[in-house]
Amino acid sequence: MALKDKLKTKKENTKNNIPKNIVTAEELIDYIRFNKNPWRNIFFSFLRGTAYGLGIVLGTAIVLTIIIYISNYFINYPIIGEWLKMIGESMTLSQ
User: Membrane spanning segments where (predicted)?
Assistant: First the structure.
């Protein structure tokens, strides 16, 4: 394979590796800067993971609080009340 063909293939591969949503030269420069510094990439990935984990914990806590608050209104109904009492007793016994 001639040198010219190798360069052409390399150019096409580079062209295919650039994401499709990059339109302007400024966006391309930002993309290159972001990928050149691996520590910055690791830091932002860490922040993203931390925010995701915190969001999961807070969201779960809020949803469970609302469910428990609403279930307190159903405690006096015959079938649902007995079921909720069993759940409450099993939770206190497990502690």
Answer: 50-75
Q: How many domains does the chain have?
A: 1
b/e map 60-80, b = 16+ CB within 10 Å: eeeeeeeeeeeeeeeeeeeee
Q: In this structure, is residue 78 part of a structural domain?
A: yes
Q: How many helices and strands (H and E) does the chain possess?
A: 4, 0
Domain extent at residue 80: 38-95
Q: Are 81 and 73 in contact (CB under 8 A)?
A: no
pLDDT, tens digit (0-9, with 9 covering 90-100), for 19-65: 666 677 777 777 788 778 888 889 999 999 999 999 999 999 999 99
